[in-house]
Amino acid sequence: MTSKFDVLTIGNAIVDIIAPVDDRFISDEGMTKSIMHLIDADRSAELYEKMPENKALISGGSAANTAAGVAALGGQAAFVGKVANDDLGRTFAADFDEAGIFYETDYLIGGPATARCMIFVTEDGERTMNTYLGASQNLSERDIVEETIGAASFTYMEGYLWDPPEAKKAFVLAAHYAHKHERAAAITLSDPFCVNRYREEFRDLIRSKTMDYVFANIEELKALYQTDFETAVRAIAEEAEVAAVTMGAQGAMAIVNGEIVSVPAFPVDKVVDVTGAGDMFAAGFLLAIARGQDMGQALSLGCLAASEVISHVGARPVADLKAMAEAEGVMV
């Protein structure tokens, strides 16, 4: 069955604001390093004023970054996510149009402003995120178009958007449409804090096969089963159809029907900013599977995409990912 899109992603539509800081700034502001903090509009304005002048603005959001990664690798990508009809929202839509990503979600009218995420990057490359979710939380079933979902080999959804009840309904409907059209549905666990809030709901999505593929890193997988990594791997092997697990410098593994396939990471001269590593991994992995590649090739393409994005500041690739993949012999 042919597809118009290799990967369609659903998630928070956010404008990322990225700036370098030192560890003391993180401590002084009462943040927990390396995790994502949800903040309100007032805190968003306060932190924005404290950001250094050398900040960068990039249209983002976890699933949106994955769509951008698919497009950068030469795939056909689509995105579903809510922005307001304001300057940031229009900028977001224009950025996606320029990147060649199909994006036709209606603007939110008369609600909160477009979401933004302030990302503070320390010298060790770790990122501490402070996110005002604004309009992105207003995604609903009305934004899920069966024809669009049915045209994608994969529909991939981010755990960060599992909070709002209407967004949950949208996720389940999207998975239903994907399966109705004999397509696959996938979810990323996104962050340990998401897992700790919705552990049983995420496991229900996996066990019920509402989600065919699940993406996680080591800490997220451990949080899902509240145990050590090795035991968690055995547990998810029993519950998930396919699990893709990123392991940082150790590479990545896929667990399929109880079997484990693993590949090493691609070397990086210096880790500058790990923002978006998991998002880019998912882009490479899903595109490879959508194009008929095996699990080992998919893992390798995912690791290559992740290696590029951690070598610089920002969650989107700056090098020619497609050319990199071709040079490494992992292009689909």
Describe what this molecule looks like in 3D.
The chain is globular, with a radius of gyration of 18 Å. With 332 residues, it is α/β, with parallel strands linked by helices. Helix 3 packs across helix 10. The model has no long low-confidence stretch (mean pLDDT 94). The protein contains twelve helices and 13 strands. An eight-stranded mixed sheet has the order 5-1-8-9-10-11-12-13, with helices on both faces. A five-stranded mixed sheet has the order 3-7-6-2-4.
Quick structural gist:
This protein has helices spanning 23-28, 41-50, 62-72, 87-99, 146-150, 165-180, 192-207, 218-225, 229-239, 277-290, 295-309, 321-328, and strands at residues 5-10, 14-20, 36-38, 56-60, 77-80, 115-121, 127-132, 152-158, 184-188, 213-217, 242-246, 252-256, 259-263.
Q: What keywords describe this structure?
A:
332 residues, alpha/beta, five-stranded mixed β-sheet, 40% helix
Topology:
Blueprint: E1 5-10, E2 14-20, H1 23-28, E3 36-38, H2 41-50, E4 56-60, H3 62-72, E5 77-80, H4 87-99, E6 115-121, E7 127-132, H5 146-150, E8 152-158, H6 165-180, E9 184-188, H7 192-207, E10 213-217, H8 218-225, H9 229-239, E11 242-246, E12 252-256, E13 259-263, H10 277-290, H11 295-309, H12 321-328
Parallel strand pairs: 1-5, 1-8, 2-6, 3-7, 8-9, 9-10, 10-11
Antiparallel strand pairs: 2-4, 6-7, 11-12, 12-13
Helix pairs in contact: 3-10, 7-8, 8-9, 10-11
